[in-house]
Specification:
FAD/NAD(P)-binding domain, five-stranded parallel β-sheet, binds flavin-adenine dinucleotide, 2 domains, 19 strands
Length: 336
């Protein structure tokens, strides 16, 4: 494994979304050689517009990606299309990252920013509308459907909280009981906020002219809505980390498992594995683009600091060894 024929970088970044590119930008500006391996499907790719990202509100996710890539490449960073499938720890403490096409690269440090997969409720036709009018985050999409009929699909405990949130953006909010048994308190809250509750399992979506207009229920009734809100289960794309012995773990909110993520230090993204950092949705599923980018930048700075520390240690050892040798030879000259 350790034959050193592969290209080598100070840092290999796996995943080139907001988190990975922000980490890479920090590192290339810190004069580090950086390779970003990216399979090119950021989580928000199904959405036409990205909102709430200061300075780029309303731009497309692709525009952020193109601008971020150009900035990283402008400082000499490299971006390689592909999928990293596994990594091995090398005897020198670095890593060998293997890609799906059989290639491999070396990195002294590893930043994994692979994001997550949104596991969606199994309602026919729902996936095709994801990011268009099947939504989850009111801060990303709420403004665009303000005052319109919004329906929230209940298939677990987050639904009532979601209905309460979306009600803030639209007074025409309906809670579809679907497969979830609503409690008395949930129903009282709905009444208090003017949220209509509709019983019955949702069986499909009604779409006209590429716009959601409603959902159908078992039995054939339809409920009008312009947006359908769901609570995806967040599953970290953690294959590379798992191959190094760092699997994702359950993420619990209010006693309910909302997904799986990889644990890290919240300030730096350092993981339990020496030399491996994470950033963005792979470790923090609730972060939006700005939070993911901030985490990437923080991890980049932490990685650079770690490299500086290692280089300083080596320089000190070399200096001390040189000074000891010089002292030895001086002593030899005097007495020889
Ligand atoms: C439909 C939708 C709309 C959204 N809208 C907004 C919005 O308007 N505003 C907002 O702030 N947030 C929005 N978000 C949230 C936003 O998508 C995330 O916060 C953000 O994408 C997280 O960035 P990230 O870099 O952690 O992950 P990602 O953006 O998902 O990037 C991960 C990258 O890693 C790559 N990758 C994964 N595995 C590998 C691998 N093994 N090898 C190589 N590459 C790999 C992927 O292809 C991808 O390019 C939205 C989310 C969804 C689902």
């Amino acid at each position: 494994m350790d034959n050193a024929t592969e290209e080598s970088f100070d840092v290999v970044v796996v995943g080139g979304g907001a988190a990975g590119l922000a980490g890479a930008l920090t590192l290339v500006r810190a004069r580090r050689s950086v390779l970003v391996i990216d399979s090119g499907s950021p989580r928000n790719a199904p959405a036409a517009h990205m909102h709430g990202y200061l300075g780029m509100d309303g731009e497309s996710p692709a525009a952020l990606s193109a601008r971020g890539r150009a900035e990283v490449e402008g400082y000499g960073g490299r971006i390689r299309p592909g999928t990293a499938v596994a990594a091995d720890r090398l005897s020198d403490g670095g890593f060998l990252v293997r890609c799906g096409d059989g290639s491999a690269v070396r990195g002294r440090r590893l930043l994994v920013a692979t994001g997550l997969v949104d596991e969606l409720p199994a309602v026919p036709g729902l996936r095709a509308r994801w990011g268009k009018d099947v939504l989850h985050c009111p801060y990303c999409h709420g403004w665009e459907v303000r005052d319109e009929p919004v329906a929230v699909l209940a298939d677990g405990p987050p639904a009532v909280h979601q209905a309460q949130m979306w009600r803030h953006w639209s007074a025409h909010t309906t809670l579809l009981a679907h497969t979830w048994r609503l409690g008395a308190e949930d129903r009282e809250l709905a009444v208090a906020l003017g949220i209509r509750v509709v019983e019955g399992e949702v069986t499909g979506l009604v779409v006209a002219d590429d716009r959601l207009t409603g959902v159908t229920l078992a039995g054939g009734a339809a409920v009008e809505c312009r947006a359908l809100v769901v609570a995806p289960r967040f599953t970290a794309r953690s294959g590379v980390l798992t191959s190094l012995g760092l699997p994702a773990t359950d993420m619990v909110r209010d006693g309910h498992v909302i997904g799986r993520s990889v644990e890290s230090d919240p300030a730096t993204g350092a993981t339990a594995l020496r030399g491996v950092w994470v950033a963005g949705n792979v470790t923090a599923p609730l972060e939006k683009v700005s939070g993911a980018a901030a985490q990437g930048a923080q991890a980049g700075a932490a990685i650079n600091a770690d490299l500086i520390e290692a280089e300083t240690r080596r320089a000190l050892e070399a200096h001390r060894a040189g000074a000891a040798a010089a002292a030895g030879s001086a002593a030899g000259t005097v007495h020889g």
